[in-house]
Amino acid sequence: MGFFRRKKKTEYTPTSWMIKRECLNLIFECAKSSFPNEFGGLLRVDTESKDTIIEVIILPGTISGDSHAIFQMHMRPIDFSIVGTVHSHPSPSARPSDADLHLFSKYGKIHIIAASPFNEESWKAYDYSGKEVEVAIV
Ligand SMILES: [Zn+2]
Question: Is 77 exposed, middle or buried (0-12, 13-18, 19+ CB in 10 A)?
């Protein structure tokens, strides 16, 4: 039994999330212009409030099938204002696939899936465990 306890890294996770409407609209635009392919991006929060998604960083290239390898390349912890991922589903289902759930468990705290037809009624957000979370549009 050791006396040395590793200090737990306490990362801030908001109890409620918000997203700027223009940011969400940009997500829909990207999803539409990538259709019928998926698009992928990273979500960035306001570093002061830490709970408001203000920016989406579009990842170049197309997500190939369900591998989502594109995220794994980009989710290195270089930028702590990046809190999660967004990608589109060309289908009307915003339900995460097994590959999505695997991705969520590895990277980030909040993940948005925008499903076809890419509007305010066709997107959902999830936490690392794949549980649906409410994100208010502001
Ligand atoms: Zn997916």
Answer: exposed
Residues with CB under 5 A from ligand 1 (ion): 97, 100
* Residue-range definition of the domain harbouring residue 96: 17-55+67-137
Hey, which residues are catalytic here? Answer: 38
* Residue 3 forms part of a structural domain: no
Q: pLDDT tens digits for the chain (138 residues)? A: 445 555 455 567 888 999 999 999 999 999 999 898 888 999 999 999 999 999 999 887 666 555 566 676 666 656 778 999 999 999 999 999 998 999 899 888 999 999 999 999 999 999 999 999 999 999
38 Cα: distance to centroid of ligand 1 (angstroms): 8
Contact 136, 16 (CB under 8 A): yes
Cα(64) to centroid(ligand 1), Å: 11
Instruction: Give the whole-angstrom CA distance, residue 57 versus residue 74.
Output: 10
Q: How far is the CA of 119 from the centre of ligand 1 (A)?
A: 17
Residue 133 belongs to some domain of the structure: yes
Among residues 60, 55, 61, the alpha carbon closest in space to that of 84 is found at 55
